[in-house]
Amino acid sequence: MSEEKFSNKAKAKVKILGEEYVIKGNESAEYISKLASFVDEHMQEIKEANSSIPRNRIMVLGAMNLADKLYKIQDAYKKLEKEYAKTRNNYEEVLAEYRGLKEKYQKVQEEYNQFLELVEKGELD
Q1: Using alpha carbons only, how large is the chain's radius of gyration in Å?
Q2: In the chain, what percentage of residues exceed pLDDT 90?
């Protein structure tokens, strides 16, 4: 790729498992560094728990663990979206019912007021 394609991209020098990388992306350098720190911490935890496995396996295990977390979060998000849609539908139904009852109440109130006027005029005898 040419340099022009990277000219608008942020660049950050980061360390993951002790190795330096230069990462370019659409987000800020600070954001890229935070992501790299998150990945590094995760990989370090795996390395500490499994000190005898090679670095490339640590990376694969780390990627699988992060992918697992991502899938679980996406699944939870989809469930929340469905729950929100259901709640929104219930709200719309209750709101429609409320509006209908409000209209009925106003009609009954009008009829009652008309009845009171007739009683006051003595026209119901």
Answers
A1: 33
A2: 84
Q: What Å distances lie between residue 1 and 5, 23, 26, 43, 71, CA to CA? A: 7, 15, 16, 30, 31
**What are the start-end ranges of the E strands in 31-80?**
none
Distances 27 to 8, 9, 32 between C-alpha atoms, Å:
10, 7, 7
Asked if residue 65 lies in contact with residue 54, where contact means CB atoms within 8 angstroms, the answer is: no
What single string gives the DSSP state of each residue in 37-72? Answer: HHHHHHHHHHHHHTTTS-HHHHHHHHHHHHHHHHHH
Q: Is the pTM of this model over 0.85?
A: no
Q: Are the beta carbons of 24 and 3 closer than 8 angstroms? A: no
* Amino acid, res. 4: E
